[in-house]
Each structure stands twice: as C-alpha cells, then as structure tokens.
From TrEMBL:
This is Ubiquinone biosynthesis protein UbiV. The keyword Metal-binding applies. Pfam families: Peptidase_U32 (PF01136). Its cofactor is [4Fe-4S] cluster. One of its GO terms (biological process) is ubiquinone biosynthetic process. Belongs to the peptidase U32 family. UbiV subfamily. Keywords: 4Fe-4S, Hydrolase, Iron, Iron-sulfur, Metal-binding, Protease, Ubiquinone biosynthesis. Forms a heterodimer with UbiU. One of its GO terms (molecular function) is peptidase activity.
Length: 306
C-alpha cells in the first residue's frame, strides 16, 4: 500500500468565543495551509451569538480562499428547537454537513445529501461504515479513543470490502470525551443551566478540572462537554497516518497560538519535524495514550510543555 497525501483540516471551535474572536480567527485561517475548515456550534445550543447565516458568511469567504468548507451539526440534540436548527443546517444548500448525531444522519440521508460522519457517531467496524456509506456518507472521523493498531486493521478491512470513504484522525487539541444534558461550567458558578449567563465564554480554552491529590489537570470542562485535560499532539505520527491510508489530520482550534500549531503540522506532513521534537506548541500538557492503546492521558514520549 502506498502512502496517501495527508491533508490538514481545522475542526469547529469547541469553546464559546465572541463574534469578534470568531471573525478574527477565521480571517487568519484563510491563509493557513489547511485544506478543510469545519464551522459551526457543535456543543451547546444556548451559544447564540453566531447564527447559521453568520457561519455561512464565514464559509463563503473561506471557500473563496480555496478552502473546503463543512458545517458541523450539534452533537447533543435536546429539544424541538434544536431539531429545527438542525433541519436548517442540513438544508443550507451550500456546504456539506458533518453529522455528529443520528438525527443529522437521518435528515441528510432522507434528503439524499452527502455528509461527513463525526467522531461522536462511534464508528468502529466496516459494517457500521457500510451502513452509513449507503446512506450518503462521503467521509468519516475515527473515534478519538481508537488506537493506531485498531485503526490500521479497520482501514485494511474497509479496503478489502471496497469502502473507500476518506478517514480523518483527531491529531491535535483537547480530546472531546463526553456530552451531558447538565452544564458543568454553569454548575461551577452555581447557576442553573437555563440561566447560565453564558459563563463558559469566560474560558476561551475551557475550565481545567484538577485532581485533589496531585493537582493534575484530568479534564477540561466546556459547558456540557467534557474534554481531556491534556492536549493530544500527533505531529510525529503524520507519516504513519499517511502510510495507513488516513486522509486527513484534524486540528482543533485554540484561542492562542493556532497559527504556530498549523505551521508545525504542515511542516511535519512534509517531513520537516524538528530534531529533537519538543512536541509542545502551546502551554498545555501533552497526551497521546489512546493512539498507542494506553490510557488516554498518558504521554508516551515523556514530554510536557514548559
């Protein structure tokens, strides 16, 4: 098997930023060496600063800059209002949708629209991928906890069965682990979820949750979403991903230093990793345990940020 040409993609912003922050971020991203940019609010429907029309406007500007644009659906659908917003998103008529729950898959499949399957759909075997391929799936994301060895076997099985939808791996950022109907950031501020006063906007890179024993950051709270405490960095694995047949490496946006992250990954996919590779790109601990079949918070290379 020959190596594929690995692309870079920019995932949706998982945190709650201001309109000005989103605008500035994507103005800069238009010039970054990424092939795909995924836009939209995938975490919480109460984050209403950005409407669908706002995301479409940013998407058009990015498309004019040569980017492939995808709109992310919400991962946890909790109300009829969420479903109405989902229908509008799926029927946008301009950009492909990343389906992050089965209601999005159903809507898109019923309309005969192609879609990308998000990691939250938990696709672990060729049978599941075949079902979604028949429904219109034209790309999929590996579950964030899937190891390199398991993904290698899965991709080989898919090739044997003629399933050629491109696969994307979450290569950089705090790993999305879980979603809940309860908002933990609001609870931290002793506010009810429906009157949260949008306190998560105070934390543009999430709220660190530390252990009492060792004061280690085990999780990052982001409203109703729980992320890893450390930041996954698989730069050094990009050549291996290409050999495996992975099509794209996803970089999850951060509020600071994202241009440097993209530049480092672009250099890595072209074989220009520094030696020795310090891995640390921003001030966050590094993890890569899941990729090696170990506990997710492990750092197998033993390197932490300064």
């Amino acid at each position: 098997m020959t190596a594929t040409t690995l692309e870079l993609s920019l995932g949706p912003v998982l945190f709650y930023w201001t309109r000005d922050d989103y605008a500035a971020f994507y103005r800069a991203a238009a010039d970054w060496p990424v092939e795909t940019v995924t836009l939209g609010e995938s975490v919480c429907s109460r984050r209403r600063d950005m409407k669908l029309d706002d995301w479409l406007g940013i998407g058009r500007e990015l498309a004019q800059s040569g980017k492939r644009v995808v709109l992310a659906s919400q991962t946890l659908i909790e109300s009829e209002a969420d479903l109405r917003d989902l229908r509008r998103l799926c029927d946008n008529g301009e950009f492909r949708v990343e389906a992050n729950d089965q209601s999005a898959v159903q809507r898109l499949a019923a309309a005969g629209l192609p879609f990308v399957a998000g990691a939250a759909l938990n696709l672990y075997n060729p049978a599941s991928l075949a079902v979604l391929a028949r429904a219109g799936m034209q790309g999929w994301q590996a579950p964030v906890e899937m190891s390199r060895d398991d993904l290698t076997r899965l991709l080989a099985d898919c090739r044997e069965q003629g399933l050629e939808a491109p696969c994307e791996v979450f290569a950089y950022g705090h790993l999305p682990l879980a979603w809940s109907s309860r908002c933990f950031t609001a609870r931290r501020h002793q506010k009810p979820k429906d009157r949260c006063q949008f306190v998560c906007q105070k934390y543009p890179e999430g709220l660190a949750l530390r252990t009492q024993e060792a004061s280690r950051e085990v999780f990052t709270l982001n409203g109703i979403q729980t992320l890893s405490g450390a930041c996954q960095d698989l730069r050094h694995e990009l050549p291996t991903m290409a050999e495996m047949g992975v099509a794209s490496a996803r970089l999850s946006p951060r509020a600071e230093g994202m241009a440097e992250v993209v530049a480092a990954f672009d250099a890595a996919r072209r074989g220009a990793l520094p030696a020795p590779d310090p891995l640390a790109l921003v001030e966050a601990e590094v993890c890569d345990g899941y990729w090696y079949g170990r506990p997710g918070m492990d750092n197998t290379r033993g390197v932490s940020a300064p």
